[in-house]
Write a structure and sequence with these properties.
By secondary structure, this protein is α/β, with parallel strands linked by helices. The protein contains 10 helices and 11 strands.
Length: 270
């Protein structure tokens, strides 16, 4: 079963003259849903910071491991994926519903290019539910209210925030967003999060000039944060092993772990 909360105006807001994060990210992971301007900016950033493609792939693979773990080992049947991005192979609903066909997934994004492709996201299992809502991460109360039309917020929910809080430039605002969303879900819910860092121990110093170029030539603006500031998003939550680490190393198979300047973690709400 699938539900659409997608407005018909998505394509009207689509601007193909300026590089956009969803499309550039799609380009970095080998997708086809991008334009020449996205490729040009993507290539320039990759020239400045060659590991960016590794970050994009590691982030995507982290999503797969996290959803598989939560659906398979922790019995999670509800996922709220905020900042969905463009659909590729093995989206959240595909992974979760492969393990548990009755899983319910709500995707949240407000990128025009993602709206155009929302139908691709809405092909879930007949037993479960896959829904999409057009909402902005800066409005967490609206996200929770609309997600509650599909999810049972009295039962545990895995809140996915992969590479989305880096677009909330104010640190306190970003923390408040997490607090508001996690306050709306019950004990036993999870926060799944990735975020870029400029920490030297993860090789993040190169993020700074690359992000400066991005902010001058693409949209939306982005920021990296220190590990301590990213760890603050997990206040009042209990981090699961192995804690907050490079997302390429989180529960990775032996020999496949990669060190990238993007933290990843999963935490449970007590």
């Amino acid at each position: 079963m699938s539900e659409s909360h997608t407005p018909p105006s998505g394509s009207a807001r689509l601007n193909t003259g300026v590089a956009h994060n969803a499309r550039v990210w799609n380009y970095w992971i080998g997708g086809k849903d991008n334009y020449e301007v996205d490729q040009q900016v993507g290539e320039h950033v990759a020239g400045m910071f060659p590991i960016i493609r590794d970050i994009a792939r590691a982030d995507r693979e982290f999503l797969g491991r996290a959803v598989s773990f939560l659906a398979g080992e922790r019995g999670v049947r509800q996922f709220l994926d905020i900042g969905t991005g463009l659909p590729t192979a093995d989206n959240t609903h595909e992974i979760a519903q492969r393990i548990a066909p009755d899983s319910r997934i709500v995707y949240v994004d407000n990128d025009p290019i993602v709206l155009v492709h929302a139908r691709t996201l809405l092909t879930g299992s007949s037993e479960g539910v896959t829904a999409y809502i057009d909402a902005d991460v800066h409005d967490p109360d609206a996200i929770v209210e609309r997600a509650g039309q599909t999810l049972d917020l009295g039962r545990p929910v895995a809140v996915m925030m992969l590479g989305i809080l880096n677009f909330v430039l104010d640190a306190e605002k970003a923390r408040d967003i997490v607090r508001r969303v996690m306050a709306a879900v019950p004990s036993g819910s999870f926060l799944v999060l990735t975020h870029p860092t400029f920490d030297d121990e993860l090789g993040g110093a190169g993020q700074i000039p690359a992000m400066k170029f991005w902010n001058e030539n693409a949209t939306p603006p982005i920021t990296a944060r220190a590990g301590a500031d990213i760890a603050a998003f997990f206040e009042s939550l209990e981090l699961l092993e192995p804690g907050m680490v490079s997302c390429g190393q989180w529960r990775a198979e032996p020999g496949s772990a990669v060190l990238v300047p993007q933290y990843g973690a999963v935490a449970v709400k007590p």
